[in-house]
Design a protein that fits this description.
Radius of gyration: 15 Å
Strand content: 15-25%
Shape: globular
Strand order of the largest sheet: 2-3-1-4
Structural class: alpha+beta
Helix content: 40-55%
CATH architecture of one domain: 2-Layer Sandwich
């Protein structure tokens, strides 16, 4: 499997609860490499672009209000099967259905406060990285430990 890049957002509930670095650390401990990191207070335009597929749904306005409520962290992680690895580390979207040991199981209770977003697939990842890092670098770099993590 080839190296992939994926977007992770540390959402407002995680930020307000002081869980941002605990969550980021779980991805790093998994072996994923951080390629970009940004603290951003999203405005309605960037939030609307990110959640465009939900326009017109009953929860859309609340979702935009939530994601723009305070600064969040946007991160790009890289690794073999990074999309699947991040989603597995996060757990099911509904925290009460997430497996023990996942971020959402360990820290969440409700779907509307599930702490973290991860790209669903590589196409979404490319689109979302462009939205959140437009005009900012995503780095290509090699860790000395990469050979011990990636085959």
């Amino acid at each position: 499997m080839a190296l992939e890049r994926t977007l992770v957002l540390i959402k407002p509930d995680a930020m307000q609860r002081g869980l941002a670095f605990e969550i980021l650390q779980r991805f790093e401990r998994r072996g994923l490499k951080l390629a970009a990191l940004r603290l951003v207070h999203a405005d309605e335009a960037i939030a609307g672009e990110h959640y465009a597929e939900h326009v017109g749904k009953g929860f859309y306005d609340g979702l935009i209000k939530y994601i723009t409520a305070c600064p969040i962290i946007a991160a790009v992680f890289e690794g073999t099967g990074a999309v699947a690895a991040c989603r597995q580390t996060m757990g099911a979207t509904k925290p009460v259905e997430a497996a023990p040991g996942t971020i959402r199981h360990d820290f969440g209770l409700e779907i509307g406060r599930n702490l973290v977003h991860g790209s669903a697939n590589t196409d979404d990842a490319a689109r979302e990285v462009e939205i959140w890092f437009r005009g900012q670098p995503v780095l290509d770099w090699k860790r000395d430990t990469d050979g011990w993590v990636f085959e």
